[in-house]
Amino acid sequence: MTSCCREPEQRAGALCRVEDVPDGGSRTVSAGAQSVILVRRGEAVWGYLNRCPHFSITLGAAHGGVLTYEGQVMMCAHHSALFRFEDGQCIEGPCQGAALDPYPVRIAAGVVYPA
After folding, report:
1. What local confidence, expressed as pLDDT, does residue 10 receive?
2. What is the CATH number that goes with domain 16-114?
3. Residue ranges of the Rieske domain (predicted)?
């Protein structure tokens, strides 16, 4: 049986393509048993474990997406904490001064891989 719609080709170990992460936005992916948030600004992509340091729950809303604001910060849907793209530092909210756990990534040929 064949399908009329093929899945995008993905390279072994890849998390996704850079273009799969909206510029100024986020995408949640699975890396083994871990949920990882990828955020992008232009060609730069950062990765963080999807766990709020305030209450150790995921940052995402009911639909699973992580909210972003003006391509600068991610927002925890549960407590409205704001985290910078560049370093995951909480700049406002109940966990101010704490940071998301980084998930290092690298980009090769337009594809995002674990570093």
Report:
1. 56
2. 2.102.10.10
3. 13-114
Residue 67 neighbours by CB under 8 Å, 6+ apart: 26, 61, 74, 75, 77
Cut 0.85: pTM above it: yes
Residue with tokens 């510029």, as numbered in its chain: 23
Residues 55, 102: Cα–Cα separation, whole Å: 17
Return the residue matching tokens 């083994």: 32
> Cα separation of 69 and 57, whole Å?
20
pLDDT at 2 over 70: no
Question: What distances in angstroms separate CA 41 from CA 10, 78, 93, 101, one per listed residue?
Answer: 22, 24, 23, 19
Token representation of residue 96: 């101010």
pLDDT band at 60 (very low <50, low <70, confident <90, very high): confident
Task: Give the Å distances, CA to CA, from 21 to 29, 72, 106.
Answer: 10, 14, 14
Greater model confidence, 11 or 55: 55
